[in-house]
Structures are given as C-alpha cells and as structure tokens.
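lol ok so funny story. i was supposed to be doing the assay writeup but got distracted and ended up predicting the structure for this chain instead. priorities right. anyway since i did it might as well share w the group, maybe its usefull for someone
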Amino acid sequence: MSKIGDAIQTLSSMEDLAAKVSPVHRIHANVKILITFFYLIAVLSFHRYNLAGLMPYFIYPAMIIPLANIPFREILKRVLVALPFSLFAGISNLIFDREVFSYLAQIPLTYGFISFWTLMVKTFLCVCAVLILVATTNSFTLFAQLRTFKIPKIFVLTLMMTYRYIFVLLQEAGNMMKAYALRAPGEKGIQMKDMGSFVGQLLLRCIDRSEHVYAAMQCRGFSGEYVVGKKQKLDAYSMIWGITATGVFAFFRFFSIPQLMENLIQMI
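and the output, tada:
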C-alpha cells in the first residue's frame, strides 16, 4: 500500500510544482516544448566518445531548476529511476569496447569507459529536461498545446486519458491490495500464487471502469476531440526565452567550449 501511495504522491507532486509561479512557468507552453525538443536533439546528436562536449549542457538544468523554484531533490529522485536502464545498456560498452586511448595514473582508460559515461550523462540531461518541462507546465495545458503542433489527436487523447486515469488505476490497485491484506494477515505483499488472479481482477476492474468513463463522456457530447486547457497567446517574453535558449544550445553544439577555454588559457 505504501508503494502505491508513494506513486500517487509522486504524480500529485508534479502537478503541484506545475501550479507554482515563476519566470519559467510564465513562458508559453509551446516555447517550452520547442526549447526541450531542441535541447534533446542537441544532446543526443553528440558522438558517443564526446563526453567533454556535453558538459556545457549542465548549465540548463543548473539554472532553470532554481529559477523555477523546483526542489532539486524532486528532479533527482525521478532521474535516478531512469539511470539503471542506461546503466545496463552501457555496461556492454565496457565489455566490448576495450581499446585504450589514454592512461590515468597508469590506469588504462578505454573508449568503452568514455562511451559508458557519455550514455549516462545523456540520459541524465534528457530526463532532467523533460522533467523540467512537466514540472513547469500544467499537464492539460501541455496536452492542448501538443495539438497545435499537428500531432494526431488520437495520440494526444491517449496520453491525456492515460495520465488522467492513472490515479484511478492506482487507487483501484490500492483497494485490492488492502482487501488482500485483510484476507491474508501477516503476508508481506502479494504471494506469487495469487498474482495471476490479482492482475486479472485488476484488468477486469479497469475495463469495467473504462466503459463507465466512456459512457459518461458520450453523455457529455464527446466526439473524439477533447478540448482541455486555455489557449495561450505567444508574447515577447516567451519569444526572447526561446530564441536565447535555442541559440545557446546551438552554440554549445557547433563550438567546442572546452577547446575554446583551452585556447583562451593558452593565449593568457
């Protein structure tokens, strides 16, 4: 039960963060989407051995998180959930890419070691950027603005309904776990022999609940287009943010900041 409660609290906390007021929250949702998109493209476009080139991109989360008044711990907890997936993918680089390119205090550094950390840094930066977007933009406003980019409504509607009713699913699972605990006192969690029937019952409950939800939507005139959020007007403030951010990302991408700093130090 505590894990389900924690999951519900996690989802709710992101909505609470999106309801705050800050200079980042004021930016038009479309501009924030574009900033995040260009940031992801810039980060992912780096070569797997170019770890140094990614370092300047830490400036974005380092500046935006405090500016948006987002607790860094909230972002870090969610980033750590995604890192293990990249960790297992990057271990193969350590195993198969063993060519040595340098030594550190007589310790050989392989290309696999560099590509491993490059993958981890890319994952950290990309997840941070997406979480910043979600934590500074109301979910329904975000879904509504996705339609302005001509994303098919079926995808937007599916995402929106999934997000909207994930709370219902978690509550339903919590009720079933509470009932299971009352029938099996002293048991820690659900026994493997009961897992099949538990998941099956949860699936049937979800199907039944979805039919009721769809019937209620039809009674309210649902015709395939679910209009949510208020239409925002693009202002000069948001445009300045968008142009500046994308310009900085492009500069970091096409000019090697570590190399420029090295040249500057040599000139001094």
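The chain has a mean pLDDT of 82. The chain has ten helices and two strands.
back to the writeup now i swear
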